[in-house]
Amino acid sequence: MGIFPETGQGIERVSLTDKNILLGVTGGIAAYKAAELARLLVKAGARVQVAMSEAATRFVGPLTFQALSGKPVLTGLWQGEGAGMDHIHASRGTDLVLVAPASADFLAKLAQGRADDLLSALCLARACPLAVAPAMNREMWAAAATQRNLVQLRADGVHVLGPAAGEQACGETGPGRMLEPAELMAALPGLLGAGLLAGARVVVTAGPTYEPVDPVRGLTNLSSGRMGYAVAQAAAEAGATVCLVSGPTCLATPPGVRRVDVRTAHQMHAAVLAELPCDVFIAVAAVADYRSDSAAPQKIKKDTGGLDLHLVPNPDILAEVAARPDAPFCVGFAAETERLAEYAEAKRLKKKLPLLVGNLAQDTLGQDSAELVLFDDNGAHPLPRAAKLAQARSLIAHLALLRT
């Protein structure tokens, strides 16, 4: 069922037939990944034109990309038959400019509107969307200047894909690795308006909620938010406009997703209602069922006699949204500790949901992978254990089929 498995298996199912992609390559060791990306783009049916910065040619030769794309590679403002106008002509008729890898220096150029070489001039003169896949050392990524440039680029409508975290060529470990070619391929249909949810407005909730007992204590749960953030990313990859309503987490906002931070169940309830109407609502968050009826204004002092709390129900956000006259396509999540099929299906029927995702909490909470079961009117559909992003992509593919 997974359309974009994280391993890259099945990537041949991504169709970019007749799409014109201009692949920009800047200087950095990650340039070798761009060769594989060019191969996958051509295999998916795209027409690929490669443009390289001078620094990029020091890492991978232009002939490599010419052989993969079947077209001469653009490397200079004054080369070829463009009479000095390749930076204008190259983006005309192009569906997307994708710069991968995008170095820290190149991001700075884009943010400042500089155009002192072919690739930067081409990006400034383009008449199509622009996406960048950053790749750099972790300290360069974290630098204040780089982060300021990213804020500006996003405000300018540039799609920032990644980076990932992990081992780097310099020997250090941290954020700054370029996304793998298969991961970039997964994002392209959404950027090109060809995704399974193209044009849809999607609201996703994620993470735990926190219900205060006093200023320093509260009721919460073990949800990390990873599954909800993966679902938001997968929906954005599928072309949807995504709002992520998130409880307290330490996770970075997925590319192309608008995030609203909340703390309590009541705040999440208000934030979700403010985003309606929408086309799809996916309630992944582990919302507290109860809260203290009166949080103490000061820290409660320890008493050997114990502490009694009076708990009252929180609003059932999913049930309320699903019961609206203009209800979106609603997807629920059920984390159980036993009798998964029985309890999950009962929850789906009670709330009248077209789709519910079930899992055993002890096998999923806080982990990077999950084993899920999708419940709908046609029965149960198991998803064997896989990374949460791969599972999220499978979920999006399944709900897209149900909506048709």
Structural class estimated from helices and strands: alpha/beta
The low-pLDDT segments are 1-13
Total count of domains: 2
* CATH superfamily membership of the largest domain: CoaB-like
In round numbers, the mean pLDDT is 87
CATH topology of the largest domain: Rossmann fold
- Report the end-to-end length measured between terminal Cα atoms: 16 Å
Q: Which strands sit side by side, in order, in the main sheet?
A: 12-11-8-13-16-17-18-19
Number of helices in the DSSP assignment:
13
Main sheet, how many strands, which sense, barrel?
A: 8 strands, mixed
Query: How large a portion of the residues is in β-strands, by DSSP E?
Result: 15-25%
Helix content: 25-40%
- Using the CA coordinates, give the radius of gyration: 24 Å
- For the secondary structure, the number of strands is 19
CATH classification class of the largest domain: Alpha Beta
Q: So what's the overall shape?
A: elongated
The CATH level-2 architecture of the largest domain is identified as: 3-Layer(aba) Sandwich
